[in-house]
Automatic annotation (TrEMBL):
<feature type="transmembrane region" description="Helical">
    <location>
        <begin position="464"/>
        <end position="485"/>
    </location>
</feature>
<dbReference type="Pfam" id="PF02383">
    <property type="entry name" value="Syja_N"/>
</dbReference>
<dbReference type="GO" id="GO:0005783">
    <property type="term" value="C:endoplasmic reticulum"/>
</dbReference>
<keyword id="KW-1133">Transmembrane helix</keyword>
<feature type="domain" description="SAC">
    <location>
        <begin position="128"/>
        <end position="395"/>
    </location>
</feature>
<dbReference type="GO" id="GO:0043812">
    <property type="term" value="F:phosphatidylinositol-4-phosphate phosphatase activity"/>
</dbReference>
<keyword id="KW-0812">Transmembrane</keyword>
<feature type="transmembrane region" description="Helical">
    <location>
        <begin position="491"/>
        <end position="510"/>
    </location>
</feature>
<keyword id="KW-0472">Membrane</keyword>
<dbReference type="InterPro" id="IPR002013">
    <property type="entry name" value="SAC_dom"/>
</dbReference>
<protein>
    <submittedName>
        <fullName>Phosphoinositide phosphatase SAC1</fullName>
    </submittedName>
</protein>
<dbReference type="GO" id="GO:0046856">
    <property type="term" value="P:phosphatidylinositol dephosphorylation"/>
</dbReference>
Length: 519
């Protein structure tokens, strides 16, 4: 069992010394003298170096939880990091940004292992780092520390790792989000001019027993046009398309990696999504690309019955059979690329249906007694996958999850989806500016540059709420002498007032995108 590396980290105001206890080697990193005490800690490895306005920080993983095995390699999820300042390049204090980075890495599905999680089993190129989430921080660490740095580094993905063993049969579901155009929901849409799209995720469905293994790949990603939202009070903000002519570039990115491509588009052909549906459909036709358009909502879901048969009949089943899977002397020759608007809820359900179809073919190579149990485990993994990817991009769990249970949407399901939708509405508008800043710090080169700044709206609202509650409670207590009743009455009253204030001043509080990172 490969548990990974074990580092002893000793810091002083002048240097950071890394000692690889597993490998018996050490590395010293010089730092600009900073106000810091001498300290010693243990680490799972170096995440990398991030730089903001010429101030640089070393990120070390100090806490992680085991999430399963990939062959003989332990897979961990990061739970906490230590951030050490190496150089202070400006008078600005980036303490808040580094605190946000620490929160992000400790709770956003970032995994590492001595197994190369960032590469599919069928990867054509060994140097493909599209899904190595800490690619840029590692590059900076190598540049700073030299050739031995690989002995101290960990290699991470952001996304999902799901692991289930049924007897000797091992089922794994791995989702890898590309770092090349990543960000928060309304802050990162569409494609850049190099063909990389936001929320570009490769999902690999793996079945193995010992050395015998099969894998099947699907990808999701934002509609490959250059577009954004006019973010405001509207629940569905207006879609603005500024350039359509990048699909052929985005298509080449996929074909170079996967071979043939089938585009599966799940958005509505009318209403809020109508204009981008029309533009996307025309671009697919104009570039002679194979596309399937399936209105998920009009069809009422696709997990069972005649709707499932209709969905698979739209050349989906033909494409799955034609593209095949990797393993047992076979090579997957193409990929189905799925999108809705967010590439979350509808996309995850559709990918589950496609994955379930291929799963039957994958497990045919193995001696399995209880296929029903294995299929149930597959469904559970896709359910968790949907929630994990949704949380990272939208800040909430996935919608429409009842479809994975093959049942009609009940009252409880509608209430749950309504609560999630409301949560998304406010979180995406009030909080995601700071989340976007964190993505920028971790995945873009900010050396010599400033970062976007956003009001800390949530902290301001919490402070306002607390002040109003304490003031009202104290006044009420002084008048009535009954503390408990006064407290609860005050909380209810001030909650209503706070919500009213948020609604009235929502236009001011909304954190809107401040220009695109890459075009």
């Amino acid at each position: 069992m490969d548990m990974g590396i074990n580092l002893k980290v000793t810091t002083s105001p002048e240097k950071v010394m890394l000692e690889n206890i597993t490998g018996g080697v050490s590395l010293t990193i010089e730092r600009q003298r900073v106000d810091a005490r001498r300290s010693i800690c243990h680490s799972y490895g170096v995440y990398g170096i991030v730089t903001i306005s010429k101030s640089s920080y070393l990120i070390l993983v100090v806490d992680a939880i085991m999430r399963g095995m990939m062959h003989d390699h332990v897979v961990y999820e990061i739970k906490d990091v230590e951030i050490i300042q190496l150089k202070r390049g400006s008078s600005e204090n980036f303490r808040n940004e580094m605190r946000a980075v620490r929160r992000f890495l400790g709770g956003n599905g970032v995994y590492f292992s001595t197994y190369p999680l960032y590469k599919a089993m069928s990867a054509k190129k060994d140097d493909d780092v599209d899904f190595l989430f800490n690619s840029l921080p590692l590059q900076k660490f190598v540049k700073h520390a030299g050739g031995q740095s690989t002995l101290f580094s960990i290699y991470c993905i952001q996304g999902f790792f799901g692991s289930v063993d049924v007897g000797p049969i091992c089922l794994r579901l791995i989702s890898r989000r590309s770092w090349r155009r990543t960000g928060a929901r309304y802050f990162c849409r569409g494609s850049d001019t190099t063909g990389y799209v936001s929320n570009y995720v490769e999902t690999e469905q793996i079945v193995y027993e010992g050395e015998k293994a099969t894998s099947f790949l699907q990808v999701r990603g934002s509609i490959p046009l250059i577009w954004e939202h006019a973010l405001g009070r509207e629940y569905n903000p207006k879609i603005i398309i500024s350039n359509q002519k990048v699909l052929h570039i985005a298509d080449k990115v996929l074909r170079d990696k996967y071979g043939d491509v089938l585009y599966l588009n799940l958005i509505r052909s009318s209403g809020y999504e109508g204009n981008i549906h029309c533009a996307y459909k025309n671009e697919l036709l104009g570039n002679n690309k194979k596309g399937v358009h399936f209105n998920f909502f009009e069809e009422g879901g696709i997990v069972q019955g005649s709707t499932r048969e209709k969905f698979l009949g739209l050349i989906i089943e033909e494409a799955v059979t034609s593209f095949g899977y990797h393993g047992f002397g076979k090579l997957q020759s193409g990929v189905i690329r799925t999108n809705c608007i967010d590439c979350l809820d509808r996309t995850n359900i559709s990918q589950f249906v496609i994955g379930e179809l291929m799963f039957e073919k994958q497990i045919s190579h193995f001696n399995i007694e209880s296929k029903e149990h294995l299929f149930e485990q597959l469904k559970n993994l896709w359910y968790k996958n949907g929630n994990s990817l949704s949380m990272q991009y939208s800040g909430s769990f996935a919608l429409k999850s009842h479809f994975l249970s093959r049942r009609e949407q009940g009252v409880i399901d509608r209430m749950k989806d309504g609560a999630i939708g409301l949560h998304r509405y406010f979180v995406n508008r009030l909080c995601h500016g700071s989340l976007q800043v964190t993505y920028e710090i971790l995945t873009t080169d900010l050396e010599g540059k400033s970062i976007s700044s956003y009001r800390d709206n949530i902290r301001a609202i919490k402070t306002l709420f607390l002040i109003l509650v304490l003031t009202t409670c104290t006044a009420s207590w002084a008048l009535t002498g009954i503390f408990v009743a006064s407290f609860f009455l005050s909380v209810l009253t001030i909650s209503a007032i706070t919500v009213a204030i948020i609604v009235v001043f929502l236009d001011f509080l909304i954190q809107k995108p401040k220009g695109r990172r890459r075009q």
